[in-house]
Amino acid sequence: MNSSSMMNNPRIFLWILLIMAGWLNYEAWVRDYAPRDAAAMAEQQKAPTPDLGASVPGARTPSNPPAADASSTAPVPAPVPGASAASAAPATEVPGAAAGVASAIVHVRTDVLDLDIDLKGGTIRRADMVKYPKVKGQADRVRLMNTDPETLYLLQTGLTGPQGSPHPTHLTEYSSGQKDYTLKPGQNELRVPLTWTNGDGVTVTKTFIFKPGLYRIDLEYDIDNMSGAPWSATPYAQIQRRDPNVKRSFITTNPENLSSRGPAYRDGTKYRKLKLTSEEDRNFSIDVTNGAWIAAIQHHFVSAVVPPDNTPYHFALKTVGEHEFLFSAVGPATTVANGQKATITQKLFIGPKLQKQLDATGAELDRVADYGWLTILSSPLFDVLQWVHGLFGNWGWTIVFVTFLLKLVFYPLSEASGRSMAKMKLLGPRMKQLQETYKDDREKLGRAMMELYKKEKVNPVAGCVPLLLQIPVFLAFYWVLLESVEMRQAPFVGWINDLSAKDPYYILPAIMAVAMFVQYRLQPQTGMDPMQQKVFMFMPLVMSVMFAFFPSGLVLYWVTNTILSIAQQWNINRRIEKERARRA
Questions:
Q1: 270 class by beta-carbon count within 10 Å (0-12 exposed, 13-18 middle, 19+ buried)
Q2: Nearest Cα residue to 288 out of 319, 350, 330
Q3: What percent of the chain has pLDDT over 90?
Q4: pLDDT category, 519, cuts 50, 70, 90?
Q5: Cα angle, residue 299 at apex, residues 384 and 207 outer, rounded to 5°
Q6: Where are the beta strands (DSSP E) in 435-508?
Q7: CA–CA separation, 271 vs 292, rounded Å?
Q8: pLDDT-derived band of residue 4, with 50, 70 and 90 as boundaries?
Q9: How far is CA 233 from CA 95, 156, 205, in A?
């Protein structure tokens, strides 16, 4: 293959787009069909009915069908390794009411959350996102915590202690002064207190604290010990999740099938997602001290438990199969002397992955807006987008403006590339003459063309550099649009009312096809036979069909970038022709 055909820009452009498409499909394949851990597969094959019911509340097995409310069967988590016997949690389940029996409910409503808190243990058993409809324009809201047998999702909290001594675990009955709490306009905070007493002089007030606009929930245990003896309590919180077994497609247009889902944590230094198919992760257990948290992640939404800073905690994961887990965080024992009081605190988060709120709740909790290995590009790109959005107030115009800024940043490279392509276009007749002269000797043709490039100071490789640089930027944009809940259901103009979804009328992909065709016509066609030219003429149509199923915000970025490239190349071509005319 001669140098001209190898370096021909449209061909390189096609390969780049094919590489991008292949990468996106590979990402989907890894999530759907990646090989499972061999040990886990062997264990499942030899034990089709795993005996983990004591570890994961409400675990489904052939002999244990799901109950309507499995919260009553959840265990108190294991104690922190090395903890004293006085602070050790019971090894068996705390006796509770029969499974499926619901206690009284305390209903809490703020401007962003609508919750049900069960008086049995103070478990958050329903959490609706007031500002996030499932489908834009419809009444149904996104629901995280719930007691549906197929999608059981609970956030359980409590205090445990020495076996035989009563403690307010997540299975213990509390009392409440009222059944409904509402955060009123202008109110700085809403406190929801639940009270428990052991009958021997120990009173625990478990208070959930809500603030306007926030998805963070502060949790306080106020302990008043008038029992006549020291009283010890160990705080814990655990996320119980059962995901439905959804068959995912290799090529999918549903963003939820591409986003990570399941348990994740930060140990104080690094963030990591856990795989329920990995034998090592299925037995996860770790001690942490500062800047740590546990979470259950999914597309756009998350629940998390954030322990107090500089407090030793123990994180542990228990699983049943590949879709059920119990992720627990257990703190150190606190001993309250007779006649004394003490307060134990934790922070919870239930809501959308709003990165400012997440970062304010826990160290690097915003990492749950997971951009994968492109975080190094996607995270600063999102920061720029968010800053520009503060100026425009519209995410669509924000994308357009940030694309323009990126074009300015890469302008020196684009200018060099554009000049090279413009010169190659002017050399077209001479290159065609060389092809006719050496049509039977490709080696001589290659040498002659290289000599022509050298004489005219043309670098055919220069046209590829901006396209190569666009690949990581394109993919970073893709993950920002996919993972950033800030752009969920965000409108642009007219028919585009959700930049995170595909264009409902495929108008943007059609504009993209026209723009790509114009861009193709501005580039040199030298080195291609008639059949190749026809293939590349159809390439814009093929690419627009593929992009038709991408988020419209991503297509908007590509259209804007292509139109700016056309304007820049047209201007460069015009200037090169004027320079050539003056020299003539």
A1: exposed
A2: 330
A3: 46
A4: confident
A5: 95
A6: none
A7: 9
A8: very low
A9: 18, 16, 13
b/e map of 522-538 (b: 16 or more CB within 10 Å)? Answer: bbbbbbbeeeeeeebee
Exposed, middle or buried by CB within 10 Å (0-12, 13-18, 19+), for 354?
A: buried
Is 90 exceeded by the pLDDT of residue 100?
A: no
Q: Among the listed ranges 207-216, 261-270, 486-495, 524-533, which one has the minimum average pLDDT value?
A: 524-533
Question: What phi and psi values does residue 401 have, to the nearest 5 degrees?
Answer: -70, -40
Q: Tens of pLDDT along 329-383?
A: 999 999 999 999 999 999 999 999 999 999 999 999 999 998 878 888 999 999 9
Q: Mark residue 463 as left, alpha or beta (left: phi above 0; alpha: psi -120 to 50; beta: remaining).
A: alpha
SS in 3 state form for 287-349?
Answer: EECCCEEEEEECCCEEEEEECCCCCCEEEEEEEECCCEEEEEEECCCEEECCCCEEEEEEEEE
Q: 438: how many CB neighbours lie within 10 A of its CB?
A: 17
Helix (H, G, I), strand (E, B) or coil at 126: strand
Q: What is the DSSP string of 262-283?
A: EEEEEESS-EEE--TT-HHHHT
**Cβ neighbours of residue 165 closer than 8 Å, sequence gap 6 or more:** 198
Nearest to 268 by CA among 220, 332, 300, 314: 314
Structure tokens at 42: 């062997």
User: How far is it, in rounded angstroms, from Cα 510 to Cα 209?
Assistant: 51
Q: Are 74 and 326 in contact (CB under 8 A)?
A: yes
CB 484 within 8 A of CB 472: no
Cα–Cα nearest to 330, from 274, 280, 292, 302:
292
Q: What is the pLDDT of residue 462?
A: 58
Average pLDDT value for the chain: 79
Query: Phi first, then psi: what are they for 424, rounded to 5°?
Result: -65, -35
And the tokens for 388?
Answer: 């520009």
